[in-house]
Amino acid sequence: MQYRIQRNCDKIDWQTVCRVLQEAGLAIHPIELTRKAFENSYCVVFVFDNDLLIGVGRAISDGAYQAAIYDIAVLPIYQGKKVGRLIVDEIHKDLQKINIILYASPGKEPFYSNFGYYRMLTGMARFNNESKMREKGFTE
Ligand SMILES: CC(C)(COP(=O)(O)OP(=O)(O)OC[C@H]1O[C@@H](n2cnc3c(N)ncnc32)[C@H](O)[C@@H]1OP(=O)(O)O)[C@@H](O)C(=O)NCCC(=O)NCCS
């Protein structure tokens, strides 16, 4: 299947982005904050099937040697069709020779192992909503 890939935020419907994130089970934020997060990111990926937004992803970076990936999400009915791979491959194109960190949704670590990611031994996080993140399995 040939999907359309958009690498900028032009004419993106942020409500739809929120819906994709929500349907994929990721944390969602108010529409304006979501727009700000994507617009302020180093790179973004939006995947469309015709006019339907089916997948999103983004990374923040200094553009020199460090980056972090966030919000990789594929609509449930499109999961398992290589859309997630497409999104991560696109992000990697912009992050060559740059260290990339991420925290996977609990249980989704094997998806990232496919791309050469390893568990970090010293990764630490200071989450805004610490107790909720612990409940969800992100911290000890
Ligand atoms: C995780 C997610 C992004 C993967 O996207 P996808 O389109 O379903 O995955 P793909 O079809 O592109 O799979 C790519 C590769 O990863 C593997 N893979 C996909 N999901 C996997 C999983 N949960 N565990 C292990 N491997 C997985 C596939 O087998 C495939 O391997 P291959 O290319 O060697 O055959 C998608 O399922 C999703 O949106 N999930 C809900 C939200 C989420 O958890 N996002 C990640 C946040 S950290």
Automatic annotation (TrEMBL):
Sorted alphabetically, the keyword list is: Acyltransferase, Transferase
What the entry lists under Pfam families is as follows: Acetyltransf_10 (PF13673)
Taxonomic superkingdom: Bacteria
Q: Write out the GO cellular component annotations.
A: cytoplasm
Picking any one GO molecular function of the record gives: N-acetyltransferase activity
**Which PROSITE patterns does the annotation name?**
GNAT (PS51186)
Cite the N-acetyltransferase domain residue spans from the record.
4-135
The answer to whether UniProt assigns keyword Ribonucleoprotein to this entry is no
Question: What InterPro entries does the annotation carry?
Answer: Acyl_CoA_acyltransferase (IPR016181), GNAT_dom (IPR000182), NSI-like (IPR045039)
Query: Under what name is this protein listed?
Result: Acetyltransferase (GNAT) domain-containing protein
